[in-house]
Amino acid sequence: MAKRIGMEVSIAAAEAVALADVDVIAAYPITPQTHIVEHLSELVANGHLDAEFIPVESEHSAMSCCVGSAAAGARTFTSTSSQGYALMSEICYIAAGLRLPIVMLTANRALSAPISIWNDHADMMMSRDTGWIQTVAENGQEVIDLVFHAFRVAEDQRVLLPVIVNLDGFILSHMIEPMILLDKEEVDRYLPPYRPKLRLDPKEPITMGPVGMPEVYTESKVAHDEALKASRAVITEAWKEFGDLFGRYYHPVETYKTEDAETILITMGSISETAMTAVDAMRADGRSVGLARIRLWRPFPTEELIAAVKGARTLAVMDRALTLNGVCGPVCAELKSALYDRDLHPYLQNYIVGLGGRDVTVQNFMEMSDGVVEAAERGAPMGYEIINVRE
Amino acid sequence: MPKETGICSWKELELGTAIRQPGSAGELKTGDWRSMYPVTDFEACIKCGRCYIYCPDMVYVRNEQGYYEQNYYYCKGCGICAHECPVDAIKMVQEGD
What are the chain B neighbours of A208 within 8 Å (beta carbons)? Predict the structure, then answer.
C-alpha cells in the first residue's frame, strides 16, 4: 500500500526514481538539484537500488551518458538545473531527435548573470524547443506522481520521447511536505518494464544519429514534431489511468473557479498554489476571478487552455521568465498566438514575476488581477510588465 | 526509399532517423555533383596505385591487369588522383564536353 510520508521533496523524488526501477543514472550535482542525485547515489552505494550511478565530470557528459545508456536499452534518469542545463543542452536536442526515452527532473533555477541559485523558469524556457515532453509540478505530491508518469509516457511505444519534469528550485525541491508515495507493487502495476523499439545491439547493428542531408532533415523534424503531437493522447491517457489506480487525477491545464470568471489568471508551477489562495480571497470579496494552471508545457495544450480561458473578459498571464525585448513572455506568447488563430480577443496583460527567487505573494496576485481589469478599462496597450521593480 | 538518394516520406523514416541496414551508405550516389571527371591514359600508367590510395571516395578499383579503373558512381571530381599521379597519366575532363 502507498504510504503517507513527510519528506524533503528532492529525497522523495529520488525515492520515486528508485521505485521506477531505473537502470542508469548519470548526473552532475548542481544547486538546487543536488539532493535528488545525492540521494540516488546513496541508494546505489548502499545496495538499496540495483542501478549504475555514473558520477560524470559535467552535465554535458551526463546527458551524453544518458544518450548512450538509453540507446543501449536501459531505463535512464538524470537531473539538473540552470547552468547545468545550459551545458547539457547540446546533447538534449540529440536525445530527443534520436527518440530516446530519458527522464529528467529539472529543479528550475535562474540563469546567470548575475549568478543566482534561486528559482525562475529561465532553464525551462531554454529547453522549450528541444523537442522533449515537459510537465510542470506545483507541489511535492505532483513531483513524485509526475516522475512515474514521465517514465510511463516516455517509454510508451507510441511516444518514445524524453520527458522533463519541472519543479521549482528550493520552493519545491527543498521543501519538506506530506506526500503519498506509491509502493513497489503499485508502481509495477502502472509502469511496465521498458521494451526498446530500437537499441544498440552488435547482433543487429544499426546507426543512430547519422548525417541528415537537406533531402532528409526536414522530414526527420516532421517525424519528431508528429511524434510530439501524437504523445498528447498518451499523456492524458496515462494521467487518466494513474487517477483510476491511485485517485489523483492530472490534466494538461488545471482550472480553479474559472466557470463564470470575468478575470482569469494563468500560471505555471508552484506559484499556482499561492494564486489559488489569492483567488479564494478575491472571490470572498465578491470579485469574479478564476485561475488556469498549465501542467503540460510541451506539447503545448492549446485547446485545453483556450477552453479554460475563452469565457473571460480579461486575462492576467504570469511568466516566471523574461523574453528580453520580445513581444511578451514565453507563456503569454503561446496564449496570444493561440487566441489570434481562433479570432478571440480578450484583453490581456503579461506579468513577469518571481525572477531569480523573488517571492510572488497573495497580495501580488490581487494587484495583478485588479491591475488587468483597470488596464482594460483604461485601454492600456497590451505588453509585458515586470512586477515589483525598484525604481 | 530510393537507395541512390535516400529521399523518402517522413512516414518511412526509421525511429529517430536510425539506419538499420549496415553499409547502406555504399548505395548513396555521390557521383552526380562533379563538374569534371578523371580519365586515365593506361599507356602512361605505371600501376603505382597512388590514385587508389589517395582517392577519398573509393572510386578506384584494381582490375585483373593491375590497372586502376574509375567507378564514376562515387567520383565527385575532386581531382586529387590527377594531382597525385606521378606520371600525369590522369587528366580531368570537363563534364558535358
Answer: 16, 18
ipTM: 0.89
Interchain proximity B8–A220, CB inside 8 Å: no
Contact A78, A13 (CB under 8 A): no
pLDDT tens figures, A51-83: 999 999 999 999 999 999 999 999 999 999 999
Structure-block grid coordinates of residue A350: 503579461
Among all residues of chain B, which has the CA nearest to that of A197? B15
pLDDT score at B2: 61
CATH 3.40.50.970 segments of chain A: 3-246
Identity of the residue in A197, A209, A226 whose CB atom sits nearest the CB atom of B15: A197
Average the pLDDT over A186-193 and give the result: 98
A273, A278, A282, A284: CA torsion to nearest 10: 70
From residue A104, how far is each of A122, A151, A243 by CA, in Å?
16, 10, 22
Helix ranges (DSSP H) in chain A: 9-19, 34-45, 59-71, 82-97, 122-126, 140-155, 184-190, 214-246, 271-284, 302-309, 330-341, 362-378
Residue matched to cell numbers 512586477: A387
Outline which parts of chain A fall under CATH 3.40.50.920.
253-386
Residue A171 confidence (pLDDT): 98
CATH class assigned to B29-94? alpha beta
Give the model's pLDDT for residue A179.
98
DSSP string, A112-135: SSSP--S--SHHHHHTGGG--EEE
Rounded to the nearest integer, the mean pLDDT of chain A is: 97
Count of alpha carbons within 13 Å of A315, Cβ hemisphere only? 28
The SS3 assignment for A258 reads coil
CATH 1.10.10.10 for the A253-386 domain, yes or no: no
**What cell does A325 get?**
525585448
CB contact under 8 A, A208 and B18: yes
Contact A198 B9 (CB under 8 A): no
Domain spans, chain B: 29-94
- How many C-alpha atoms does A214 have within 13 Å on its Cβ side? 0
Architecture of the domain made up of A3-246: 3-Layer(aba) Sandwich (3.40)
Matching residue, cell 492530472: A250
